[in-house]
Amino acid sequence: MRGKKSLKSRLKSGETIFGQLILELFTPGIAHILANSGLDFVLIDMEHGRCDLALAADLINSAAGAGITPLVRVPDVEFRPLSRVLDLGAGGVMVPRVETGEQMRYVVSQLKYAPAGRRGVALGVAHDQYRNRGPEYFDAANRETIVIALLETAQAFENLDAIVSTPGLDVAWMGHYDLTVSMGIPAEFDNPRFLEMMGRLLDSCKRHGVAPGFLPANPVDTLQWVDKGFQVISLGTDISVYQNALQSFHNTVKSGLGRRIRPR
Fold first, then answer.
1. Which of 26, 41, 152, 195 could make a disulfide contact with 69, Cβ separation 3.0–4.6 Å?
2. Would you say residue 2 lies in a domain?
3. Residue 15: which pLDDT band, with cuts at 50, 70 and 90?
C-alpha cells in the first residue's frame, strides 16, 4: 500500500480505525467487500469456528490485494508459534485470554525479532512477498507489526496496568462477553461493574499510550464508545451485520406486501 500511511502509524497518530471481525464468511472476497465499504482492517478469527492456517493464508493474501490490513485472532496464547500468521503476511495478531503482565511480555517476545523479541526468521516467504530483504527488514517489521491483547477475564483486569504497560503492546481490546461471564454478570453490558471495567481500560490505555479496542453491537453504541475514547473498532461481526441487514430487508418487503390492496 505505497503512498498510504500504515495502520500502525495511524494508530500512533491517534486516528480512529474501523474494521470487522470475520467469524463465518471466510471467502477471499470479504476483504474486498470491507475495503470497498471504506474499512481499514479485516480481523480474521481462528479462535472460534472453522478457520485454519491454510484458510487464513488465503484470506491474508486477498486482503493484501484489496489494500486492507489483515489482522488475525489466534486460538490461544499457547498457539505455537504465535508468529506463524505473521509469516503468512498478517499485519498484526490478536491474542485472546491475556491475563498477566508475564503473559503479555511473552506474547510480545514471540511477535518481535531480536533484540526486541525472539521471533523466528523466515525470509523470502509470504510475509515479504517472496523477496529476500536486507537487514533493515527486521526493524521495519518490529515497528509495523500490530500486537493486540484481548482482555476478557476478571483476572486480566486485576493485572490491567501490568498488561497495558508492556512495551510493544499496541491495542488493548475489551472482550466484553467473556468478561461479563467471568464476573458473574453474563451479557449485562449496562451493569455498573462492567461499565467500570470499560472506564478502567480507557484510563489505563490513555496513561500508557495504548489504543483501546472494542466490538460494539450497533451504530449508536459505536458512536458512544468512540466518543469516550475507543480507537480501534470492529463494526459488529460478519454474522451480525449480515443477519441484521437481511432481517431489515425481509421485514421491509413483508411490510410493503402487507400494505398492498389486492384487486377484486
1. 41
2. no
3. very high
Please say whether the beta carbons of 36 and 13 come within 8 A.
no
E strand or H helix at 195: helix 192-208
78-103 tens-digit pLDDT: 998 999 999 999 999 999 999 999 99
Distance CA 90, CA 69 (A): 8
- In whole angstroms, give the CA distance from residue 152 to residue 185: 13
Positions marked active-site: 48
Q: Is residue 99 part of a domain?
A: yes
Contact indicator for 85, 93 with CB cutoff of 8 Å: yes
DSSP assignment letter at 49: S
- Set of cell numbers at residue 40: 481499514
Residue ranges of E strands in the chain: 17-22, 41-45, 69-73, 92-95, 146-151, 171-174, 211-214, 232-237
Q: How many independent structural domains does the chain possess?
A: 1
pTM equals 0.93
